[in-house]
Structures are given as C-alpha cells and as structure tokens.
Amino acid sequence: MPYHAPTPDHLFLLQNVLDYSRVSDTERFAEAPLEMVEAILTEAAKLADNVLEPLQRAGDLHPARLENGVVHTSPGFKQGYQAIAEGGWVGVSADPEHGGMGLPISVLTLVGEMMSSACLSLSLNQLMSQGQIEALEKHGSDMLKQVYLPKLISGEWTGTMNLTEPQAGSDVGALSSKAVDNGDGTFGITGQKIFISWGDHDVAENICHLVLARLPDGVPGTKGISLFMVPKFIPDENGNPGRANNLHVVSLEHKLGLHGSPTAIMAFEGATGWLVGELHAGMKAMFTMMNNARLGVGTEGLGVAEAAYQKALEFSLERKQGRVPVEGGPGTIADHADVRRMLLQMKALTASARAIILDTAISIDLAKATGDADMAARAAFLTPIAKAFGTDTGSEVADLGIQVHGGMGFIEETGAAQFARDVRVTRIYEGTNGIQAMDLAARKLMDGGKAASAVLAEIGATVAMAKETHPDLAALLATAEASLSATTRWMLEQSYLNQRFAGAVPFLRAFALTLGGHYLLRAAMAEGETGPRNAVAHFHIRQLMTAVDGLCTQAREGAAGLYAFDPVQDAS
What we know:
By secondary structure, this protein is of the alpha+beta class.
C-alpha cells in the first residue's frame, strides 16, 4: 500500500482540537471555511498520492546530475513539478493581487505535509519559492513585485535562498560575498554560495536567487549585509527570461539523502542583482523567508514521519514472525508488544508534531488577520519548537520505521531507509535544532516569559477541562506543566545566557512533549472515552511524557558540567 494522505486526521485537528473557525471567522480568511479547506485538501491528496509519491524512489535511485554546465533532474520530476505548478499549489497562501490563492498558512502547511510525505526531494522546490514569495511581498520594490511575483506564484519561475558560504554557516555575518553599486539601479554581485537547494534545474524556465552580500560601506557582521534578487536569466522588457546572468553552478553536492534535490555550489561573478528591502538590512528581509522556511522544514519532518509510519504499519500487518502472544489480532508482528510499542511511539510523536506545527501556522494566520501582537508573539514562540520537534520527530520515527522492518529495513528496496536518509538534514538546515533551542531559551524569553506563560496557561486550561473525563491523564499533564513552568522561571533567572544554552535542547524537548500531551488529551476528549485517539493520548502521556521531569532537571543543570570536560586534553 503506497502513501495515503491522512486528510481525516487533518480535518479532525482543525475542527476539534485547534478550532480553525477562529481563522475562517476573520474578514481576511472568511472565504476559506472548513468545507472549502476539506475540498482543497482532498485535491492536494490526489496529487500527493497519485503523482508525487511514485517519484519518491526514482529521485533516490537517479539523482540530479550536472553535465556540461546543465543540471538534469530525476526522471519524472519535471512532469511532477508541472503538476504542482499547474494546480496552483505554489501560490496557495500568496497574495491574490499577483495570482495567489490567498489561503491561510495553516492550509499551506497541511498541503506541504502531504507533498513532503509523498516526495520530499521535489517538494523542497516549492518550499523555496513560497518563502521567496513572502519575502518579496513584504520587502520587494513595486518593480520586483510586478516582474517576479506572478512568475513565482504561477510556478513558471522558481526561487532559492543563498546565505551559506564555506566560512559562513550559522554565522551568516562572516560572509564574504560582495556587492557594488552599478549606478543604474542594479548591483554587481560576486561570491560563492554553498548548500543551495534547487540552485539549478530543468523543471522551470528561470531561477530567482535571493543572495546576501555586503556593499563596500557595509559594517562587519549581520548589520552590514544587504539582500539582492539575482535571476539566472535577466528578464527582458516584456518580463520574459532574457540574457544569461553572470552566475553558474560549480558542482552538485553528493549527499546522504535527498538525492533528487539538486544542492548546488553557486558562483556569482559580477552578476546583476536588484536590492530587496533597505540597504544593509538584508537579514531583516531574509528572516521573513527563513521564518517561513523554518515552519516549512518542521513540516517536512512531519511529512516524512507520517510516510515512515504508514510504511512501518503496513509491513507490521503483513510480516509473520514467531508465535503471537495475543488472540484476536492480525497474527503478524504487530501483535508483539515491542512492535506495538514502536508503532504507538511513531503515531504519538507524529500526532504531537502535527498539532504543534498546525497550531503555529494558525497563530501566524490569526496574527496576520487580526494584527494581534500577542498572537504574533505566540507564533514566534512556537516556531522554534515546531521546527526542531518536527524534524527530530521525522528522524526518530524514520529510525523506528527501520527497526519495525527488522533486517528488511536495512535493505534499500523497502524504502524505509530512504526516509531516514532524506529527513536527516532537516535537523540541520534553516538553523540547526540546537540553534532553535537556544532561540527558545533566550530570544523567545526576552519578553520576560509572557508568551511562554500564555502557552503554559493553555495547557493548564486543558488540565482543568479533562479532570472529569480523563482524571489520570489530567493529573500527569498537570505535573509536566508544573515542572516546565519551574524550568521556565529558572531560565529567566539566568542572566548568563550560556547557562540557558547548556540546557536549551532538553528544555525545548520538554516543551514539545508537554504540548503534545495537551493536544492529544484534547483530541481524546473530543473523541469520547474510547477510541484510537484515546489510546494514543494514554500512551503519550503515560509513557513518552514521563520524560519531561528528567528533561527539565537536565535543562536546569547549567553549563559548569559541560566545561569540566576539556576536549583539547581528551584529544591529546
């Protein structure tokens, strides 16, 4: 059984757990009621199931290749991308003024999950374009909007993000790419960028690079960086691809996974570019794209988790091995307690990640639709959790999927290993998960813990609601919330940020697991006292969430123990 989009789970979350009506009741999204969302998701599911999923294996076996300066993509990718573009899926949330659908980010997120599940390598292409569209909508000049947005939204052109250089990874401010003013409204861009997803390809007629570079008067660090639009082909007077720009692909990276996604080293040699946003304020403009991408990358992890779970579930219901210990089951390895544990863990982590990610998206929608500063702060607070936990979940669930398959999981033909290889990089790009955790423990607490306290209060409200119907689960959730609240207060008391950073990763994990219990308990209450969602909630809260107290203890340990270890001495 190939992948099948979990549309019923999406709709249940929207209707019964996260109250999507809050979005559709706003003036901005009044034309996107749940009934329309259901129809859109049904169509997206058809594309994911029938068009994109069959390309998953081809992308792995036949990677993108560079021949004589031309990048050739995997078999079927061009047709798959055309189906995405022709269906309008690139512009799901883009402004209708330039040809977009204008739908909520929450809808875009669910469509993105489906496409990531079906074929992550190909879905990366549209994610890059969608981030660029949002950056141009907010920071582009009228000329840039007029020329580029309709083409990007239609999918005729695609977008990339060019930050990283050999010496400037997470420390973007160390970049050496240079820009000079040509005196005619354009700039000459020179430098090399690495790790550029879909940096070149043959699926669309033009590729639009957003490139960070420094002008001669730009100060050192991130405050002196500007952002430029640098197209592969310079648009002519009619807005069509014209002469080739002074840029080229140096090589394509040979990677652990995502073989169908061409990851390029790009060289810009006095390439013509146009300023995006204000001079020396490139990071502000680029962060618009990066924040969009961080939620999108979390969604990629979620998508792989769902696909890996479905494959493992299918295998567990077919594979017979040993005497089964229970009666009335399928008579396969799914009857064995440890396999059942792994399946439940995969299901619970995936469901938790989906709820966190979708709640983040809904918060973004509400902030946009209402201008509510508290909702914007809530979205910002949840974003690093969504990115890190979504991608951690993708890796963890994919790894468990291999284990469920046993020896066959280590054999490439089953496809279980590809999920683990493809998803691994999501924990690294768009800000490593360690950086996301540091962001949560520091920048996201700069409001004195206001946004964190508001989220913790929501968890407390769930505890109060569940006391009558699910008293045991409510009590355990209350314990986790109390431990997390105490740890948040401890973080706020640490003026030396390295104390927070030392425990940032377990702090984020504790928040994610507790949020998972909060959402899954609400799902169980909506379902009634019995049913599959109750089973998942019981497993998550009674087993996975028991780690929260230990994670919080670890988060409060501080940095001293880490620096008691001397890596230089150990290496000598």
